[in-house]
Design goal:
Number of strands: 15
Strand content: over 45%
Order of helices and strands: EEHEEEEEEHHEEEEEEE
CATH topology: outer membrane lipoprotein receptor (LolB), chain A
Shape: globular
Largest sheet: 13 strands, antiparallel
Strand order of the largest sheet: 8-7-6-5-4-3-15-14-13-12-11-10-9
Number of domains: 1
CATH class: Mainly Beta
Distance between the termini: 47 Å
CATH superfamily: Lipoprotein localisation LolA/LolB/LppX
Number of helices: 3
Length: 244
């Protein structure tokens, strides 16, 4: 028999028998819930590191609502300030002030360059894009095997290792349909952001396809915030900074 316990946003399972079947889809939903409130704002710094040690940094303000809507605006560097992005489901747009209208972009492109692509930067809930097809239990970890729900998803398969107590990811490997490992995401430095939000504050990524390159995402603030649906429309992309 399976029992469910709640502590803040963390969801824990207890099983009466050592030979149990883990409910993969529910486990994935719990991990998503621990990573993000249902509706929130956040500040992030993205750092691209090149093999020679040189860096390029970006600061973004982002808002997310539900499982499939996220919008962001660049605050720095000056050359990027005012640019904004919007994702609703699999649809993505980039707004450039000098152009004055949103343009369509794809998940495999990158608005910042580096190893993080648009799917990483405008991340939806994992259970929105992937089915959990299998779960293995390793020492202190769950290993979730995820398969893309559609061909529009950036990665065909994903392996997610998650702490079996905190139910937060520790490492994610992203694969192409050919089986090639595209990148690895490392989740580090779990911290409290206030309220019930306790999650990794740093994500680092590297790729065997880009030797010596690394990209880092640092979360400075993640807090619950009520948001209108109007915020996640093309017409609002030029106004995103007004939410700060």
């Amino acid at each position: 028999m399976k029992k469910l316990f709640m502590t803040g946003l963390f969801v824990f399972w207890a099983f009466a028998s050592p030979a149990f079947a883990i409910d993969g889809p529910e486990l994935l939903k719990a991990i998503d819930a621990n990573l993000n409130p249902d509706s929130f704002e956040m500040y992030r710094k993205l750092i691209n590191v090149e093999p020679d040690g040189s860096k390029k940094e970006f600061v973004m303000y982002s808002v997310k609502k539900g499982r499939d809507k996220i919008a962001s605006v660049f605050l720095s560097p000056a050359s990027e300030k005012g640019r904004s992005t919007l994702r609703v489901g699999e649809n993505m747009w980039l707004y450039i002030p000098n152009v004055g209208r949103p343009i369509r972009i794809t998940s495999l492109q990158s608005v910042t360059g580096g190893i993080f692509n648009n799917a990483d930067i405008m991340r939806l809930d994992y259970n929105e894009e992937y089915n959990c097809v299998n779960v293995e239990k390793e020492e202190n970890l769950y290993l979730l095997h995820l398969k893309a729900k559609t061909r529009a998803v950036a990665y065909d398969r994903v392996k997610m290792w998650a702490d079996d107590k905190k139910l937060l990811p520790t490492k994610i490997e992203c694969y192409a349909s050919s089986g090639i490992l595209l990148k690895t995401l490392h989740f580090r430095k779990i911290k409290s952001f206030g309220g019930d939000v306790v999650r990794p504050s740093v994500i680092e990524t590297d790729s065997p396809l880009y030797k010596g390159y690394k990209s880092i995402m640092i979360f400075a603030r993640v807090q619950a915030m009520g948001l209108r649906d109007e915020v996640f429309t093309l017409a609002f992309m030029s106004k995103l900074e007004s939410l700060r």
